[in-house]
Amino acid sequence: MTQTHGRWDLPHTLGALRRSEYSEERIAGRTVKDELRENLLRKLSEGATLFPGIVGYEDTVIPQIVNAVLSRHNFILLGLRGQAKTRLIRMLTTLMDDSLPYIAGTEVHENPYRPISRQGRLLVEEMGEETPVAWLTPEQRYVEKLATPDVTIADMIGDIDPIKAARRGADISDELTMHYGLLPRSNRGIFAINELPDLAGKIQVGLFNIMQEGDVQIKGYPVRLPLDLLLVFTANPEDYTARGKIISPLKDRIGSEIRTHYPAELKHGMAITRQEAWTKRRSPVALEIPEYIREVVEQIAFLAREDKKIDKRSGVSQRLPITVMENIVSNAERRGLAAGENPVAPRVVDIYSALPSITGKLELEYEGEMKGGEFVARELVRTAVGRVFSQHLDGVNCNGIVQWFDLGGSVQLEETVNSQDMLRQLTSIQGLLEKTAALGVRAGASNPVRASAAEFILEGLSAHRRISRTEERVFGADERRREAAASAGEVSSAPEPRRKEDRRRFQ
Prior knowledge:
Blueprint: H1 14-18, H2 24-27, H3 32-46, H4 61-70, E1 75-78, H5 85-90, E2 100-103, H6 118-127, E3 133-136, E4 142-146, H7 153-156, E5 158-160, H8 162-168, E6 178-180, H9 182-185, E7 189-194, H10 201-212, E8 215-218, E9 221-224, E10 229-235, H11 248-253, E11 256-259, H12 266-276, H13 291-306, H14 319-339, H15 348-353, H16 356-359, H17 366-371, H18 373-393, H19 399-406, E12 411-412, H20 419-426, H21 432-435, H22 447-463, E13 467-469, E14 474-477, H23 479-488
Parallel strand pairs: 1-10, 1-11, 4-7, 7-10
Antiparallel strand pairs: 2-3, 5-6, 8-9, 12-14, 13-14
Helix pairs in contact: 12-13, 12-14, 13-14, 13-18, 18-22, 20-22
């Protein structure tokens, strides 16, 4: 017998199948879309989570997917890169039955009660009740293809196989000589195509013929195959237009067009990054990741999506904050090992060390290209730090810290310095360590956490141009702000625009 999901009691012949719970009445006329609909209705009535791990789509994308499945529609997910489109369509297998019978040995996973190919019909005619039956798991019923311009009709639908013809001694036009492509082999399952507009026009024509009429031609020979499929596609909205590379008849045959999106709220983005980033790792040092560091990382992605120097048509993938967080943790881990410190807490300096995981994910406009990817990335980090600083320390009086620098104080915080030495340097700055309470640092917190919070405050003040920071990470007075405040007779806390000649000095 065939084992499926740990079961050995499933019938393995057509006769045994007829006498089992998988009767002809249940299996014969039930399409894959009916199956998905029935299982979805059951999950909805039970209040089950439909797409676990998908964050931020609960009120937007998921209800539209539910409607499409309940309507038995083929559908397309339109969205920019890194919006979980592929993950969503792969999770449709959770709406399938645990096991599905088919005629063993058939290429197109024939329904034992209603074979659609000549091979399947001949097998049932010859063997009758002893026709062998095998079983498909949900994973085996899902086929995915990345659309590329070099995909052919033979890849998608099929071709004549001369070797089969020679072995059988059959005429080359005989259906038994056909080699079936991905679509027929996906019969009774889900067939997904990523980046649909990249398919050549003639392949798109073949798709909508299958979707509507169910018949195809292979090398000029008509082969009617009433395939049982759910077709799901993904595409970039920019390509899926009248100006793009999609043909209108195919668009017309897709039942639902569903738009995906990036996280609408910072907390959703943080939840995704927390879930996906590889931060819980085996390591000689323990990690304590402050929440404000997570906020800065996510804020970088949100700012990049708004920045005019970055191409909005390409988008900024959610993979950006995920990989940035992984790099940050790795840099903190490396510092902990070098300094002999355990545990360690990531700092803002670790975010700057993660620039290689930012620059490769930004498609720049002309202005951005003129400035350079690293410059744009540094500006994003700086602005993100400033924004998160404002959220946590809004209303907190930091004038004492600024005054310490205005009176000639300066401090250099090297990337590799351990937290104990760092705190020894920062203790002299009046009021600095006390202000870390605004970041949630409690009394008795570890030295790495306290040092990280103190550095964040200095970085935030630097981002708002209240103090300066050089490329060598020396924090000091902001001379321009101090001169302006002196002439006005007051200390201004408002950020000032940088002059061109100071851009290299201030990161």
